[in-house]
Structure formats: structure tokens, C-alpha cells
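HOLO CASE FILE
Compound: magnesium ion
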Amino acid sequence: MKHIKHIFFDLDDTLWDFEKNSGQVLEQLFAEFDLTGKLKTDFVTFHSTYKKTNSQLWLQYAKKEIDKQYLRNHRFNLVFKQFDYDNYDENLIITDHYLNRAPKGKHLKEDCIAVLEYLKQNYQLHIITNGFKEIQYIKIDGSGLRNYFSNIIISEEHNLTKPDEQIFRLAETLSGAKKEECIMIGDNFTSDVEGALNAGWEAIYFPGVPDKNYTGRSISHLKQLKDIF
Ligand SMILES: [Mg+2]
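Model generated. C-alpha cells follow.
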């Protein structure tokens, strides 16, 4: 990896444990708003439906089929409707609570800080994240990540979303890097891995569940980066 000078990380579920931080808040809200009674389901079913709905909405957002306001204002009600419950106003109240609480979560992926300490000795570290700026900065600052990174590139600030090649070109410009010096590490195959490879970068796939079908470079734990770099 001698040719690599710049390591770009995705944020959610690569460094910041979105699954855990978001899951904890959803579980609180599920109880506080008596969603068991209203949706006639359990939290596990609700949570998996929420995650599916949310990732579909993010795909639509990336394709510019919907805007941020739509994504935010309809997300919970779209989940509710799948359980034959429709309450737009309550959906907005839950959205407010969720957006207030979830970014304040401090759980990072295991060994995150130790690995960043190790990598920063020999590489410039950066973040490229698809997300909203006010939310992503709360996560980054609240969990102590900010000082490890030279550049933090948030999709909304530049109106570019991974896997768009242009966000990788922008990252090169901002960090003064050549594409052959860059590698992207992330949990999302399409946004992080395919996006980076299409841009002529290298990539390391870090899926939540090990993916046997992927033959490229991948890790199942951040500490494995110490063997690669
Ligand atoms: Mg991610």
C-alpha cells in the first residue's frame, strides 16, 4: 500500500455505529409512542421495516427523485402505513425526536479510535459521507472523530452524492490527491466500493455481515486495517 497517501472513510456504519446509535433511539421512541399498540407489531419487525424503507428513500434521494424535506417528513408514516396505521402528524413529532436524539449517539465501530490513531501516523485521513450537514457534524463532533480528518466531505454541502464520480473528483481536489493515491473504505457496496472503483480509486469493502460473493479487498473488522496499511 506504499502508493496510497489518502484514506477516505465513509461515516455511517463504517466509523460511527449508525445501526446501534439509531437502533437505540428507535427503540426508545417505539416504547414512548406505544407503537406496539398502534402498529400491532414488535420492535424487531418495526426496525427492519424502517431500515428497508429508509434505504429505499435514500436511493430515491440520491437519484434526486425526492428531496430532503420529503424524505424527512414522510419516512415514519411510510413505515406506519405498512402496518395499516396512518398518522402524519405523529410521524412529524417522532421525526423531530429522532433527528434530535440519534446524531448524539456516541457508539463507534469497535476499535475505531485505535485504528485511526495508527493510520494517521502515515496517511492523511478524510471522510466522504452521504448525509445532511447539521446531522453529520453532530455525530462527528459528539463522538470525538473530528480531529483525525483533514477533510470532511458531506454530500449535502456539495450537492453531490456517492456513488457519483464527481464527489470523488471533488475529494481529490480538496485533499490535493492524485486518484492513484486514494482508497475508500465503506460499508455500502454501491456508494462506497463501486463508486470509488469507478472513479479509479482502490476500495475496501466493510460490510456489516461478511459478504462471501465479493472477491475484492474487504474487512469484517476495522482492526484488520492495521494488517493492510
Ligand atoms: Mg455507510
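CASE NOTES: The domain at 6-17+108-228 is CATH 3.40.50.1000 (Rossmann fold). Residues 10, 12-14, 186-188 surround magnesium ion (CB under 6 Å).
CLOSED: yes
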